[in-house]
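Many introductory courses stop at the sequence. We go one step further.
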Amino acid sequence: MPVPPVVRSALAMLIGASCISSVAAAPGAEFATTDEGIVGTYRRTVPNVDFDTSKVRDERNKPRVIQRQSELLKERYDLSNRPSELLMSGGRRTVQEGVRVLLPKGATWDKLGQLSPAEIKKQDLFPAGFRPLPHVKHETGGMVFPQFEIDEIDKQERRSLQRFDVDFDLPDHFLPEFPAPIFLQMRPELATYPGGNWSRRRTSSSCSTASSLQCRWKDCACC
């Protein structure tokens, strides 16, 4: 369902206030420890504990970290798998359809459209799904990879990107295609991508980059 223009305006005016309030209430201090150098929701100093001690603590806290983020996502968003007929750029995965931000209990987009920004703020009806989403483990941060990417890289390169303290939080059906499609728009003489299979193109030694680009599009024999 489209978001009414009035609601869009109200949401835009409340973004500033919501950012401040959401940061203050971000679930990022639950596992913060001074001996690990974490002050508030950020790591500011060098940890005072050794790696093994920190690792045991992180592994023990991992289930709660995942549960906390899962509860936050379900509170804010509709995470169901509802694929549309539209495909992503690589043509291998469908784009999810529908509005996924959940409204406060009893609220509708039409009702929000009839309220002023001040009224939305006063009644605390600003959709939480439009507020900043904390890192799955905000106290530590860092890169977190989807499991299918971890498995594929481990298979091909024999190295694991698996973290012992946290897992990726978003469902696979919301994620981009993997591996990501590469479109060589600036160097089309190097490769094409027909039907998802790479095929290299060899250019004649007499062709410069500029001429090969030009004749490629004219389908001449040079390329």
